[in-house]
Amino acid sequence: MNELKVRAINEGERRAVYGLLAEALHASPPDDTNWERVERSFPADRTLAAFDGATPVGMASSFATSIAVPGGKTLPAAAVDGVAVRADHTRRGIVTSLLTEQLRDCVRRGDLVAALHASEATIYGRFGYGPAVLGQSLRIVNSRAVLRPEAPSSGRVRLLDEDEAIGLVPKLYRRIGPHRPGMIERPDLWWPAYHNRLVRGGGGEHRVAVHTGPDGEDGYVVFHTSNQQAPDDSQFKVVLEVRDLQAADPAAAIGLWRFLIGMDLVAEIRAPARPVDEPLRALVTDLRAVQTTGLEDHNWLRLLDAGAALAARTYREAPPVVFGLEDKLLPENTGAYRISADGATKTEAPAQLRMTADVLAMLYLGEWTASALAGAGRITVADPAALPAADELFRVGVRPWCGTYF
Ligand SMILES: CC(C)(COP(=O)(O)OP(=O)(O)OC[C@H]1O[C@@H](n2cnc3c(N)ncnc32)[C@H](O)[C@@H]1OP(=O)(O)O)[C@@H](O)C(=O)NCCC(=O)NCCS
Q1: In this structure, which residue's CA is closest to atom 17 in ligand 1?
Q2: Binding site membership of 95 for ligand 1 (Cβ less than 6 Å)
Q3: Are strands 130-141 and 380-381 parallel, antiparallel or unpaired?
Q4: Are residues 271 and 336 in the same domain?
């Protein structure tokens, strides 16, 4: 084997590197038509690869976005959208070299955090990523799901044709904006792959419905239906899968759910990766009509500039706590941070709670509590009084959610 070299790729190397990613994820490399559709979503910029001679054998890519954090600010962020090593080159440290270099590259670009969706939960903790956002998979039994009379009902829903959907959905997502912690902006380059995957097939036909409230269009849902009727069954069993449901406010979300639940012939709705606090059970007369079929790590987060990221979110009123952070891959983050309702600053004071970068990421958006993580042995506690204070400082009203696949 030649000596491996990690470097940014050039324009001419994009398709081979994309093919490597597809193969590692057990998909087919793109043919000419597919490449034409996805290549705009796969720029050379921000893609690193490991080369064995001239052949790419590993890759890590990201796109620039911004992410909402508690308190309402959005921070410049890297969305890590591709990580792969060729099957005959794994377990030789290639992804370690790539992700270490990618972290430094993102820091140089000014990203304050990085985020990703993990194919396996055992890979990214060592690189300082923590499962910062959970998501639930929902199953709704339509025949039992009757909306309560007091469930808000305003606005109307209309179905769009494909061209209208392709034009309207990005505009609507932009208008809705990343309004809850964990949501990201979807840059222009993100949309062609989405259209390719969702609206123009790839798993079947999708339909798009838009909700209009008192101030105009304020939500949409992309969904897919399939008839899963058994050959010996005379009943239709249509299963409706929600692929993307975004709403500017609870009323718009409820309007869209009302539309889906009321659709004729649909036996069951499946909605993966929904917010953990989606209030559907409170909306129906029989709360058991809404079932959680899974709770998954939805989004992993990595603080790249811990000081700036900690200072950017808000904290609740509670006694100040000094957090000690150990960050082996980005040692400039290692140190102590004093966090209070007034914000976060670096300090020389002794740490009351000590943790690694992945654990701090789990706390950051408010998904986990310090007490729970200390109980699990993930936080070293020098001062037990700091735990309830830390729980209160980081507490959030709305659970984090991403809602964008990348
Ligand atoms: C997952 C993958 C990227 C790892 O690449 P790699 O170059 O083999 O990883 P490295 O050799 O740098 O290993 C780094 C560490 O992670 C561990 N590791 C690597 N892959 C792992 C896996 N799938 N599960 C658990 N641990 C894994 C290694 O044992 C090693 O541990 P150590 O530091 O304690 O020795 C590669 O196996 C791959 O491409 N898999 C298929 C595609 C995929 O899952 N991509 C991720 C998309 S999110």
Answers
A1: 123
A2: yes
A3: unpaired
A4: no
What single letter denotes the amino acid at residue 335?
G
Which of 86, 116, 146 is a domain's end point? 116
Task: For residue 91, report the distance from its CA to the centre of ligand 1, in Å.
Answer: 6
- Please indicate whether residue 120, judged by its CB atom, sits closer than 6 Å to ligand 1: yes
Residue 89 sits in the same domain as residue 224: no
- Asked whether 85 lines ligand 1 (CB < 6 A), one says yes
Number of domains in the chain: 3
CATH number for the domain spanning 105: value is: 3.40.630.30
Report the separation in Å between the CA atom of 123 and the middle of ligand 1, taken as the mean of its atom positions.
Answer: 6
Average pLDDT per run of 10 along the chain, which is 406 residues long?
A: 87 96 93 88 95 96 98 98 96 97 98 97 97 98 94 93 90 96 96 74 76 96 89 84 96 96 95 96 97 97 98 98 98 98 98 98 98 98 98 97 96
Burial of 11 (0-12, 13-18, 19+ CB in 10 A): exposed
Residues 75 and 183 in one domain: no
93 CB within 6 A, ligand 1 = yes
Would you say the CB of residue 99 lies under 6 angstroms from ligand 1?
Answer: no
Ligand 1 contacts CB of residue 122 (under 6 A) = yes
Does ligand 1 come within 6 angstroms of the Cβ of 329?
no
Residues 264 and 375 placed together within one structural domain of the fold: no
Question: Of 262, 297, 332, which marks where a domain is finished?
Answer: 297
Q: Do 215 and 343 belong to one domain?
A: no
What's the confidence (pLDDT) of residue 246? 98
CA of 58 to the centre of ligand 1 (A): 11
- Position 154 scores a pLDDT of 83
pLDDT at 261: 96
Nearest residue to 361 via CA among 308, 302, 404: 302
170 domain-assigned:
yes
Mean pLDDT score of the chain: 94
Q: Is 119 in the pocket of ligand 1 (CB under 6 A)?
A: yes
SS (H, E, C) 322-380: EEEEECCCCHHHCEEEEEECCEEEEECCCCCEEEEHHHHHHHHCCCCCHHHHHHCCCCE
Extract the tokens encoding 86: 């060729």
Same domain, 287 and 140: yes
Whole domain around residue 357: which residue ranges? 312-394
d(CA 154, CA 65): 33
Please tell me the distance between residue 374's alpha carbon and the centre of ligand 1 in angstroms: 27
| 53 shares its domain with 200 | no
Cβ of 98 less than 6 Å from ligand 1: no
Output the residue whose Cα is nearest ligand 1's atom 12: 93
